[in-house]
Design a protein that fits this description.
With 246 residues, the protein is an alpha/beta fold. The protein contains nine helices and seven strands. It has one domain: 3-Layer(aba) Sandwich (Rossmann fold). The chain has a seven-stranded mixed β-sheet with strand order 3-2-1-4-5-7-6, sandwiched between helices.
Length: 246
């Protein structure tokens, strides 16, 4: 599992930087009603998306929350009003927010019941008519029909934590009904064979890949043997789903 405290300073540069953050912020904003006045960006990380949401809509009061001190500190340095908190226990009054966003968060939550708990907490803090916006099927967005996908296919986890079906079910249990969808490009996130091998060995694919019949090292070796080891394959297209509080 990635050490987010240690990775905070370099994190954005390895995740598409400003272009990807701007695309994500635009996607979130497109699912928010124009009357939205308060938004909590859950799992805000370094605040690179959070600040762009706030800049694009000055009348919107944007807050951040993250469980990593390093990430929260980076977000604070960018001017985000951020709290160090778990997504399952937010220091927020029930029914007090107009919107909650969670970008690239749910796919990381592999503990049993974790995704359901985060979605339920989002429902708790939203007022009636409030909107929850989250990425879904994050890892499968990287399945672009490449040779990397072919190597990894036999080792993919069959039940991603953030599948649309699962998240929609958790949302319904929390009193949230579907309210729109958006897509945006993961700029700078086209995978290379060498980069994929390194990410696999570093545990960055833990939410998606479980090696079967071979070791992670052997699977990484297969990736590194692919042609054009440093040539990026197609960029992913991420999906956002919106849910409104009944």
């Amino acid at each position: 599992m990635l050490d987010y405290d240690a990775e905070a300073e370099a994190y954005d540069a390895t995740r598409g930087g400003a272009p990807r953050a701007e695309a994500a912020a635009a996607g979130v904003l497109g699912l928010l009603p124009p009357t939205t006045r308060t938004l909590l960006d859950l799992g805000c990380g370094t605040g690179i998306v959070t600040t762009r949401i706030a800049a694009a809509r000055p009348a919107l009061r944007v807050l951040g929350a993250d469980a990593s001190y390093g990430m929260a500190a980076m977000a604070y340095s960018r001017g985000v009003a951020v709290v160090l908190a778990s997504g399952t226990r937010l220091p927020v009054r029930p029914g007090s927010l107009d919107a909650v966003s969670a970008v690239w968060l749910l796919h990381l939550l592999r503990a049993p019941g974790a995704v359901a708990a985060v979605v339920a907490e989002a429902g708790r803090v939203l007022r009636p008519g409030g909107v929850f916006v989250t990425t879904v099927d994050k890892d499968s967005a990287h399945d672009v029909g490449s040779d990397i996908d072919e190597v990894l296919a036999p080792h993919l986890t069959p039940t991603p934590a953030d599948s649309t079906r699962a998240v929609t079910g958790y949302a319904a249990a929390a009193g949230l009904r579907p309210a729109g969808e958006a897509r945006f490009t993961g700029h700078g996130q086209g995978r290379t064979p060498r980069g994929s091998a390194a990410a696999l060995l570093a545990g960055q694919y833990a939410s998606r890949v479980r090696t079967r019949g071979i070791t992670p090292r052997e699977l990484a070796d297969r990736l590194e043997l692919l042609p054009g080891p440093d040539t990026a394959r197609a960029e992913p297209e991420y999906r956002l789903r919106g849910f409104v509080r009944s």
